[in-house]
Amino acid sequence: MRISTQMMYQQNMRGITDSQSAWLGYGEQMSTGKRVNRPSDDPIAASQAVVVSQAQAQNSQYELSRTFATQKVSLEENILGQVTTAVQGVQEKLVNAGNGTLSNDDRASLATDLQGLRDQLLNLANSTDGNGRYIFAGYKTESAPFVEGASGVTYAGGEEAITQTVDTARSMIIGHTGKQVFQTVTSNAVKEPDGSVQSDMFATLDKAIAALKTPIEDGDDTAREAFTAAIDSANRGMRNSYNNVLTVRAELGTQLTELTALDASGDDRTLTLTQQMSDLVNVDYNAVISSYTMQQAALQASYKTFSDMQGMSLFQLNK
């Protein structure tokens, strides 16, 4: 096999080019801090990095969703805390109303107090968040869920509670409808003598207020019995409403606890994914600096070899 001058030249140039490319590659890794700067650097690591990157993006989205959910659930729980206090006030007034020694004026005064609490509860039921959206309107957040008319308070909000996906395969209610809070009872609700159950908080209050406003003449036992029955019924209805509000609050409290746990799991997942990504694409500075130095020495040796070969006779003969 004959070795021509051109072949020797090409082989040496190829060696220099390869060494220079490797040396520049190590330099790029040191400047970017990444071992894989393009898919061709390590196709397998690059493809795995895409999967990890998608997992990181999904994890970040869930983290944002949990932040939003925590804000919504906390706001609802805060409002229901005020509702609980108002309902307790109503129950106290109803207990006082059962006092048989009260005069018509006393009952009228209690009716005024109950009216104030009823208006407070209606205002809480139509609470909005910081963006003007109604909290208890379901997905119909642009309009007030409870509307007062000639026949009393009616629910005009959405029928479906707002849900939010907060983690893989985990969704939760972050916004109950007003019907679920103010017009629903628990499974162990107290029944009326006829077997029915009072579930509408505002209808119960309206009946109690109307009964308190109705004067009772001395000696009118029928009217007094009707009043006593109305107040007893209101007590049962408000007890049902109170228990339902507490049940919803308990659910919200459980969700807040779960969101905290999911945040902790999400933080752990973030650390794990970050480490996986680092292992796949980030550079080992100790190794790359060593390789860079060695490749630099190899490149300098290639330059010197090429320079020395130009002094050989074969090159001279081809001049």
TrEMBL record:
One GO CC term, this protein: bacterial-type flagellum hook
Coiled-coil regions listed in the entry: none
Localization in the cell: Bacterial flagellum; Secreted
Main location: other
Entry's Gene Ontology BP terms: bacterial-type flagellum-dependent cell motility
Family: Belongs to the bacterial flagellin family.
Protein name: Flagellar hook protein FlgL
Source organism phylogeny: Bacteria, Pseudomonadati, Pseudomonadota, Gammaproteobacteria, Enterobacterales
Gene symbol of the encoding locus: flgL
